[in-house]
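INPUT
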Amino acid sequence: MAQPRVDTPLESRILPKEFYEPFISQSSNHRIEDPIRALLPLEDSPGVISLLAGKPNSETFPITSMQFTLRDPVTGAEKPIALSEQELAKGLQYSPSAGIPELNDWLIGLQEYSHGRKRGEGWGLCFGTGSSDLIYKVVNALLDPGDVALIEAPVYAGIVPMFHATRCEIIEVGGDSHGTDTKGLRELLENWPAGKPKPKVLYTVPHNFLILEDDPYYYLYFGDAPRPPSYFTLERDQPEVGRVIRFDSLSKVLSSGMRIGFLSAPQVIIDAVILHTMTSNLQPPTLTQVLALRLLKEWGYDGLRAHVDRVAQFYHAKRDVFEGFMKKYLGGLAEWDTPEAGMFFWFKLKINEGDAGEGDSEAIIRTKALENGVLALPGTVCHPGGQKTAYVRASFSLLPPDQVEEALRRLRQVILDARAEAKAEKAA
Ligand SMILES: Cc1ncc(COP(=O)(O)O)c(C=O)c1O
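OUTPUT
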């Protein structure tokens, strides 16, 4: 089938519903609606007296008022905010599996504000209990045992168990601080064995499969160049629109304990996820959605932007402190690219000298570093195949400078000891 031209109107470039049929998993196709939740929207029909759901009577709820104090993102002034009676009642009660409509609407507007994707242009939005919940559900909506998933590695280790549980075949695609190894990816696809099922998804980056764009750090960008556009933005100008499945999160910018993530995707995928929510945890918590809605409406999109810019600057300063101590203690003992977003350094330990290979950070980090009182993530867990790697992930989000210094001082000693040991072994 000829692809539509990029300059044709967007409506004619939106992939049709049938496009997604071969992508949806058996278990998703077998999911049926929660019969009570399916009837719930009818409660709002005019004149209806509902005897339907097991909603507890809010008169019995012990919480009678709720207030919080909100810092203005521009002036820093603090303002008390009280939830109204209706907001509190709504927050303490069950709500739709897709999320409360007003917050849904606000976040659809945010996607237009941040990514230029307008409502009604072939995508929808729903919430999960954090973006993890949504990634888990999308992975289950798409993958059957034996399906192939391409995963850009190193990857956020938290998603690896989600893919494993589907019994899909995971193929790693290389990546570095500039993104996916597109040359390697092209070679892999061009030499794909005849008869082997084609990959269904790639966890980040385009080709003829669905793209899972997991981007909780989007707003924590502090690089000098303009913020790189999201895949969600880029696909708007592609000949076909509807391959990007985007995961956002309020965890890193408002609160991780609120557990609010949101999914922007073709409606077929949104429907599959809502069905999953209906038949698992019913819905994400209403109360945190009401809180988030009140706060976001208080700020507006520009206020949110001002807030996330401050948050990004906060992590920028933390990064600089961390890197200063990296240079001081790990100079010559590790290699890294300076991160321009997020809250992690991904660095390679220079364990072996000469031609002994890069070595493995696992034992050093999991045992020796821990014995010396430093906890970091060994890079091997960021490779779905568990391959050996000299890389380590370290977070710079929380620690004050004196603790960063102490942690890196300890790590230096651990690396020096490991190097001495490797040298002695080689000589023996
Ligand atoms: C890349 C990535 N994706 C997803 C998540 C999960 O975030 P949430 O709190 O929205 O579930 C994290 C959290 O650390 C992450 O680093």
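end of record. The first helix runs from residue 26 to 29.
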